What does this fold into?
Amino acid sequence: MNAILRGALGALCAVCAWLALSLGVAAQGTSGGASLRAYLTSGVVRLGDRVALVVTVENARSSELGTLPSVKGLGIGPVQPPAEQRSIVFLGARRQESVTRTWTIPLRPQETGLYAIPGFDVLVDGVARRTNELSLNVVRDLKGEELGYLEVRTSMPKVVVGQPFTIEVLFGFDLAITGTTDYANLSLAWWGSLPGLLENAAPPPDPAHARVQVVVNDREMVEVEQLPNRSLRGREFLQLRLVRSFTPTREGRIELPTSHFEFGRTVQSQDFFRTRREKGETYFVRAAEVALDVIPLPEQGRPLDFSGAIGQIAVRADATPRDVDAGDSIKFKVEWTGSGNLEFFTAPDPARLDAFRDFRVYGKSEERSLDRRVVTYDLSPVSSAVREIPALPLSVFDPASGRYGSVATEPLSVRVRALEGASGLAADDEERFRSDILDIETGPGASAPGEPLGAGLVAGCGAFVAAAWLALRTAVRRGGDPAAPAARARRRARKELAASLLRANVARAQLELVHRFVSARTNRPAEAWVGERIGGAGAELDTVVAELEREVWGGSGTPLPRERILAAADAAIGGGL
Amino acid sequence: MSSFALRCWLTLCLALACCLPASAQVAAGSNAQRALEAYRSGSHELAHELWRLELDAGTSASIGPVAALRNLGNAAFRLRRPLEAAAWYTAALRLAPRDATLWHNLEFVRREAGLEPADRGDLTATAKRFASSWTLPECERALLALLAALALVLAWEALRGGGLPRASALALLALMALAAVPWTWQLRHAERDTLFVVQPEGAALLSEPRSEAALVARLSPASEVERTDALPGWWRIRTAEGATGWIADSGAIALRAPWR
It folds into this structure.
């Protein structure tokens, strides 16, 4: 028994020892043995080629780059977030986890030469560890410089705030390699990141020039113009041009860092899944950095009505129609052209100019583009004394002379006729253009309402009508419902008798109609009145009935006159039948 | 002889009795004519005064109160007093509520004065315009006419019965109910002594009829308040919100006779 216990205890200790060993190894796998490595993607590169400093930290719970070193002539950065890779490996009973963080920091050599990149600190698990020193040899691409060219230039070396300028990139390669060149990439470090500049709308493409697509900064396809070929160094070169226009919004110095043009050919590779095109032999050519000074507008001599127009601007104007009546609308079209900030200046307002005091300005419409500004004013002459549309001035700053000036339209002659039946419209007679109150009343006008009768009278009349109606209705209903069928037949009896007698041409028919009349008036069946006499008020009708019976039973059947029967019926009704 | 003398005396008395109102009418007529000439010649202040005299002369004046009020409004507007013009037009519309010219002028001067339209065109304003579109005498006469027609129809119904007279009576009752809307409106509002605030900066509502009294509120321009009492130079008023106090009589215009 003791032996069994001892064996079990030993086995338990062995398991615990194995577990402790395993956990210890695993812990060492995740926290211990962190490594730091820094290297260049290439130790020797051509000027303009891409090269990067790669920093890798393995098996660290946390890591962070310190301050990057500064090397003259070598741009370092910007630093992007690191790529992180985690892997867990089980080796038998061991679990091994590794974490790798990698920073890829682009380097931009400005010149050829040997660059020494000193070591810099990297915080690994809270401990500063220093990278090793690296060296980069940048050499000229002599063949690229021979086979291609790149020029970056601004339209002027100095501009004032608000003055548009262009950046022109001219590039190309030897026509002799056109057949083997199918790759072009412009590396423009300043592309899309020029502070203080407002990019203007692109000018319309020249239809005389072909358009081709090139890559900018390895990621963006841009359309450029293909200009006529260019002779350079005794050879013919393909010439491409990229132009962008900007308007500076603040003073300062704008620097365009070194630009590169990479061109060459691509090679095609194919694997099981896809076909890829990769860069093959490429060449680099470089353009020196360019700077541009932006200076503020001078205060001296600035007109109070300065429109903000800068540049060399020309103007012309037209007006239609020119033969109008006073008050009619004239479309006064002014077009400014030239090299200037045509899109941004404030067009002059004729309503604020004394010269236009004989005109009403109803409004304006504008069309803006890079090369022209068209404003159409809606003017209306208020007087037949107007002979011309005066000159419309625009204050302009001319950067070439450094002075403020003015460009004005030529006065345009117009003919304004007086309104028919009017003496003309005075400029100060604004009332004529407006709606107004209607004129005074010169006659007696509407009469004032009379005195009110009083609410009591109206209410009393209403109450009286209601009471009278109720009384009358009650009294009438005592004798029966006047709307009952019998009552309505009684009221209709006289009318029906008169109508029926028109069609009765024998005494028998007349006798039947009289019986029907008496029946309707007395609410008794017609048969009940055969041989009966009405008596009283109906004596006359009884006589008529007796005569009709004699005619019927006597055999002659001669009808009585209709008027006599009706007269007897009326007499009976009048007697209360 | 005595009989002749008596006849002469009676003739003289009759002539005098006829001439007195005629002379008054001539004077009033000459005032209206002078006002018209003054207005046409651009003397709007004089025209304003004369029409004011015409208005104060009462209904016997030659052009009538509606025309006098309208012309006063025109003169006030020409004198660049659009609020006062709006007051006169509002007063005139109380006498002739369907006068299109008055409505046009009122809305115009209110727009010029920066006020919102008297008829905003929404449902409430349209209902109010309908309710106030008849004067009280017109409402009464319309109701009495409808009542007479109703009496006839009811008599018909009482004597003959039947559906047609009953339907006619119901139709007339519906018409009377419709006519009763402006009547009840006018009963409630026409007899109210309303003032129209014409001071552009509003009228100060004071606790007592003296300028040093405590300020209770400031009445906005073109607001209408009810006059409840008067003292020389002061009017006691009650606002629509129920606030009472005194305002100077120069700050408002009465919208019904007497116009002062």
Chain B has three domains: 12-120, 136-189, 194-254.
